[in-house]
Write a structure and sequence with these properties.
- About 45% of the residues lie in helices and about 15% in strands.
- It contains 14 helices and 13 strands.
- A seven-stranded mixed sheet has the order 2-10-9-8-5-3-4, with helices on both faces.
- Helix 4 links the parallel strand 3 and strand 4.
- It is globular.
- The N and C termini lie far apart (about 45 Å).
- It binds pyridoxal-5'-phosphate.
Length: about 400
């Protein structure tokens, strides 16, 4: 066993706070009993503000991908025309699920690293009216880009008021503001292992009244993922099938921590950690993949420089306790990703950057000691609204 815990800086699963870990090790309870009902109610109530909805939310024991599948099979029928807006690997996955279940999927393929452009979406909707649904990714974990969901949804509501808007926010919700009802979004999916400070195993899905109505006529096959069964069961404080109780314990505790911090505090912490990560990586000479106008607040992707032996570099990072994520799909080997979501602290980000700094110096890169940590500290202070007099030029 390692003496020290690694700094797990992948974009989920995230490291867990001590009380969340303890919660996960608690004895089982009867999932048809009152204790479970009270916990389910606490979780649903605690999550609701993060979804920004007054509509019903379902908690399913499944990975995030199961949540995406639930969004598709519950609202669509084979042959339905669907517009899949993909800005990366997870956008591709969402569209693929719809296609495999028989939807007639047209894709908008956005260059990886860019966000979807509302004007391009408008053109696509106007050019071919009649889409039953548009699939959007809120936070594209593979590229570190956050889509402007409010603006994209506004275009859809304007051009195609009846079209369903299904959003993958597996790695966004809980970390950044989201207003499902105000933005006119119909289905939002998130996952326990991302912002919620818990282990993998649960997908949380909110559906608008329009989406719940669509489920009555949608004909894609579904049993385990039938959201109507989940909603009915939740109404009596239960789940239709045996849930991952240990993960629910953890989400319950995660939400307790988030509630104590306050949503605004949670959002500010993510913003500061993201700003620190970006500034630190830039100061180390790495180029960031994402269009910085749409940089993710939960994960940052940087290009691996051509003159860097990434495999050897990464082995050294791990030796110093830093675990980063590599690239996915066509970005494998060309980027690395630093996750900053869930219970992430600024100190963890500064720690990660100090390791990157040290290993960069060890392999002979032209990096001044302290440069990344310093830049990150300044960016985080700015994000928190604190201006350092020295950084502002008032001191030595
Ligand atoms: N969508 C996004 C944006 C994700 O980041 C992930 C996981 O990283 C998924 C979907 C899939 O979630 P899971 O791996 O839990 O199936």
């Amino acid at each position: 066993m390692d003496r020290f815990e690694p700094n797990l800086r992948i974009p989920g699963p995230t490291g867990l706070p001590p009380t969340v870990r303890e919660a996960g090790s608690r004895q089982m309870i009867n999932h048809r009993g009152p204790e479970f009902a009270a916990m389910l109610d606490r979780i649903l109530t605690g999550m609701r503000p993060y979804f920004g909805t007054s509509s019903d939310i379902a908690i399913i024991t499944t990975a995030g991908t199961g949540g995406l599948e639930a969004a598709v099979v519950n609202t669509l029928s084979p042959g339905d025309r669907v517009l899949g807006v993909s800005i990366g690997s997870f956008g591709d996955r969402f569209a693929k699920i719809a296609r495999i279940y028989g939807a007639d999927v047209t894709k908008i393929e956005v260059e990886w690293g860019q966000a979807a452009d509302p004007a391009v979406l408008r053109e696509a909707l106007e050019a071919a009216p009649g889409y039953r649904a548009v699939l959007l990714t809120h936070n594209e974990t593979s590229t570190g880009v956050m889509n402007p969901i409010a603006a994209l949804a506004a275009v859809i509501r304007d051009v195609a008021p009846e079209t369903l808007i299904l959003v993958d926010s597996v790695s966004g919700l809980g970390a950044v503001p989201f207003q499902m009802d105000a933005w006119g979004v119909d289905v939002v999916v998130t996952g326990s292992q991302k912002a919620w400070m818990a282990a993998p195993g649960l997908a949380m899905i909110a559906a608008s009244p329009r989406a719940w109505t669509a489920m009555e006529t949608a004909t894609m096959p579904r049993v385990y993922l039938d959201l109507r069964a989940h909603r009915e069961s939740h109404a009596s404080g239960q789940t239709p099938w045996t849930p991952a109780i240990a993960v629910l314990y953890q989400v319950d505790e995660g939400i307790r921590l988030m509630t104590a911090e306050g949503a605004e505090g949670v959002f500010a912490r993510h913003e500061a950690c993201a700003a620190a990560a970006r500034a630190g990586l830039l100061a180390l000479g790495f180029e960031l993949l994402a269009d910085q106008l749409h940089a993710s607040r939960t994960v940052t992707a940087a290009l691996v420089p051509e003159d860097l032996d990434w495999k050897a570099f990464n082995i050294s990072l791990k030796r110093h306790g830093l675990v980063l994520a590599g690239g996915q799909g066509k970005l494998a080997g060309t980027i690395f990703r630093l996750g900053h979501l869930g219970s992430v602290t600024l100190e963890e980000i500064l720690g990660a950057l100090s390791v990157l700094e040290r290993v960069s110096i060890e392999v002979g890169r032209a990096v001044r000691p302290g440069v990344a940590v310093g830049a990150a500290q300044v960016a985080a202070l700015e994000a928190f609204g604190v201006v350092s007099p020295v950084a502002a030029g008032a001191g030595a």
